Prior knowledge:
The chain is mostly beta strands. Helix content is 0%, strand content 55%. It has strands spanning 3-7, 10-12, 18-25, 29-37, 44-50, 56-58, 66-71, 76-81, 90-98, 104-106, 110-114.
Amino acid sequence: QVQLVESGGGSVQPGGSLRLSCAASGFTFSSMRWYRQAPGKERELVAVITGLGDYTNYADSVKGRFAISKDNNKNTVYLQMNSLKPDDTAVYYCQARRAITGLEYWGQGTQVTVSS
Length: 116
């Protein structure tokens, strides 16, 4: 069965850290992206990593604070989020592009809340 399962969201104070996980099962992905959507705002691309893990890129708003990585053995991508700010509050979604077919799959979303 093809699916993406996210985990790791939660509530944290400003300056804190969280790590999101996105586990892919049933397929090999050529790239994976993390998006976020805050209330009343458009969905924003946060970070991307290739299936080989040889290329990453980040939105300017998170550069130097967030890091995307991949565990090949677990077919899982992580988003390490440090120095969190209230503006990082959003629902975070992972999206994977399947190798060869190019089909895209989305995770269910996980809430991240940064508040004092």
